[in-house]
Design brief:
The chain is α/β, with parallel strands linked by helices and 142 residues long. 48% of the residues lie in helices and 25% in strands. Strand 4, helix 2 (72-88) and strand 5 form a beta-alpha-beta unit.
Length: 142
């Protein structure tokens, strides 16, 4: 079994996949779109990733505010969750993503990656952090 982790943004979706033992998350790619409302190609690419990696569950970052309230991005994320479930037929788990983008950016900064380069990879690395958090949670449940 593999799990796909997604970091859903207004113009990009970072994607990561677990290993078959559900221990580690690896970054896959950043899916880019020209407009926030143009999701057909994004959903089609996610379907391809689900098929290619034989994914059985999707973990979608849920962007709560720091005070634990839900804003406009949460509503858009829930709509995207519904689209994913309809399109793939898989369970889509919402996972608290607070500070994952900040952590991803800090990790790359500490690794010496220049700011211009960090922007290219931050969403993919945020997806890795989201998925790894979920995998660690599953590991503690066992």
């Amino acid at each position: 079994m593999r799990i796909l982790g997604l970091d859903f943004g207004s113009k990009t979706v970072g994607a990561a996949v677990s290993d078959e033992l559900l221990l580690t998350a690896q970054g896959l790619e950043i899916i880019r779109r020209k407009s926030p409302d143009k999701l057909r190609q994004t959903l089609a690419r996610i379907e391809q990733l689900v098929s290619e990696y034989q994914v059985e569950r999707i973990v979608l970052g849920y962007p709560k505010n720091m005070n634990n309230t839900e804003g406009e991005r949460c509503e858009k994320t829930k709509q995207f969750q519904e689209m994913l479930e309809r399109r793939t037929g898989l369970e889509v788990v919402l996972w608290d993503e607070r500070l994952t983008t900040v952590s991803a950016d800090r990790h790359m900064m500490e690794s010496g990656i220049r700011r211009e380069e960090r922007k290219k990879y931050v969403d993919e690395l945020a997806a890795v952090f989201i998925l790894q958090g979920y995998l660690d949670y599953l590991g503690m449940q066992r």
